[in-house]
Amino acid sequence: MNHLYLERHDTENNLHRFYQMFVTPGLFDDWSLIKEWGRVGSPGTVRKEWFDTQEEAIVAGNKLYTAKCKKGYQVISV
User: Which SMART domains match (predicted)?
Assistant: First the structure.
């Protein structure tokens, strides 16, 4: 998983949300999981988590992906 974009839509409650994740290398032999979320069409909130290895970042991203899918998010692009 290098990039993943998810959306969740609930028209009855006017809920249109997105969530995207990136795994990228850092400058000091570390890796980051960059997460962005918000309302579709609006700028989102961005947060970074740092990891020692790429595998750790991917595992964290996969756990987050699983949690988002349980909440009703669907993959739009990979």
Answer: WGR
